[in-house]
């Protein structure tokens, strides 16, 4: 089954073709666009998101990727029924590892956890071969979508599990990883983080981080600058032979948060051929003030786990921490940003660097989502809004997948043969 042949387009095509030659007199593209609704345009695009934290849910006993799970903002937002309703064809499914101590034992534990998460992604796909397929190249996306399946690329958020052994990157590449982010919430062995404000250990990439970038170039892996300090992003662009990719990032001009990028840096990313995928994590795009009760509850749990976090939470501690945090969310719901605020971010980036350098990376199941776009079933609203703003279907094709796949093709072409 080939996706994106809409009813409206089908009727027009039938009216324009003779019975003896179904391919004769095709309907001009301009005429099709004139009658297509936003929903029809959205449905015939390849729609990919570059940051799906959904694999974190695979080990939960009450989560089923095939079921229409109850939505939880920032936690349960992606499953097959929601993807179908939202026209989401897939994207990068994330192997995330929290930052821990920089020692041999912790590196080994992180490596094992990351390998296990990759195995979970692969197992999910293998368990549902009629609905999902692993993707390894840019060209895989159109083929998989054409077969009526969802696209599963793998990415690493935080290279901490590699330890100090850069050769481990080959292991993850062989398992299907095609996007690598050096750093997460805290500085690590590879780079400075945008949110580790206590110290800037290297002023960008460490020497080991420079090795990481060169090895990613050699293998043909895209490099993710989200979560990286501005200086780290600059270093990546200076060293990498391929464009940088910001898988889930916002613009600082609209909200001054260190996770966002300045206009100057975003222009450099675009000049480098790179892409920013706009984040929908409320506290990164909006000034959200929690209630005093929520603030106190969060501070209490953070203080309780502070020492354990410095050493790195065990799997049991992490599960317990998440359970208690979810209980806080239930009792004292977090303040939410809105769909309009998210769209302001996207429209600002589009105006600044153009539709060749902007895409979607909402941080689904990792904290993303806003009022009016609570899960992936709401994605057609983005298409409708962009059309209202005057962007064309060609622009939307780039925003929804074309830009990401273009960078991937450049990376593939530049890899060591």
TrEMBL record:
It holds the Pfam family Peptidase_M19. CDD domains: rDP_like. GO terms for molecular function: metallodipeptidase activity. GO terms for biological process: proteolysis. Gene3D superfamilies: L27 domain (1.10.287.650), Metal-dependent hydrolases (3.20.20.140). Coiled coil: none annotated. PANTHER family: DIPEPTIDASE, MICROSOMAL DIPEPTIDASE. This is Peptidase M19. It comes from Hyphomonas beringensis.
